[in-house]
Sequence to fold (97 residues):
Amino acid sequence: MSRRYVRGRNFEYQVKYKLVDQGYFVIRAAASKPIDLVAIRKGDVMLVECKRNKKQVTQRLREELRRLGEALNVSVAVAYRDITGIIIEKVYSPCSR
Fold:
């Protein structure tokens, strides 16, 4: 296993535990494409793509995730780390149409 893979996987678990603390039931997706985590809470489904730093969160990625959310009619978020900690930023929410 490469160090890059291990660091990415560890970050996915950190995001997972943060979502669990917020009351979500979270499943880590196998193969992690196109999303890393599926989070469910009281009928709300959110797909989460994890990136270890904000530089990896490109406009193209945001647009791909938004399209996925629209197609599936579920919330989609991107998670990354900044100086304040782990940020989970919703890219699309079915309510925001």
Residues 35 and 49 are 5 Å apart (CA to CA). The chain has one domain: 3-96.
